[in-house]
Write a structure and sequence with these properties.
mainly alpha; 112 residues; flat
């Protein structure tokens, strides 16, 4: 596809979709943090950019940003991971990042 055929508003659309999804999570209190103001923290910024990266088909960066955001947000969440899952959290993130690296050539095909 030629550069002039691309939609110039794709970046804005991804941003708005990401922002909308994060705001839905905050409004419905899906993470159990409490007030809406409790959702607007630096950890949620990492999760926001993780959603943005996922919409851009950047799987590796989305896995890393999600993992970091949730790791630092977990102590404040009302729902906690069981100790077994807490112990395997980072190894599982590494496995998911490895799978994302393997899928990277496939996502490059969808971008063009």
């Amino acid at each position: 596809m030629k550069e002039k055929d691309r939609n110039p508003f794709v970046g804005i659309a991804k941003f708005l979709i990401s922002l909308g999804l994060v705001m839905i999570v905050a409004k419905l209190d899906l993470l159990g943090l409490g007030e809406i103001s409790d959702y607007f923290k630096w950890q949620m910024l990492l999760i926001f950019f993780g959603v943005f990266s996922l919409l851009s088909l950047e799987l590796v960066s989305s896995v890393i940003l999600f993992a970091l955001g949730f790791w630092f947000l977990m102590p404040e969440m009302s729902v906690q991971l069981a100790p077994v899952y807490r112990n395997i959290y980072w190894p599982a993130v590494l496995v998911m990042a490895g799978v994302a690296f393997m899928l990277r050539p496939l996502t490059k095909q969808f971008k063009h």
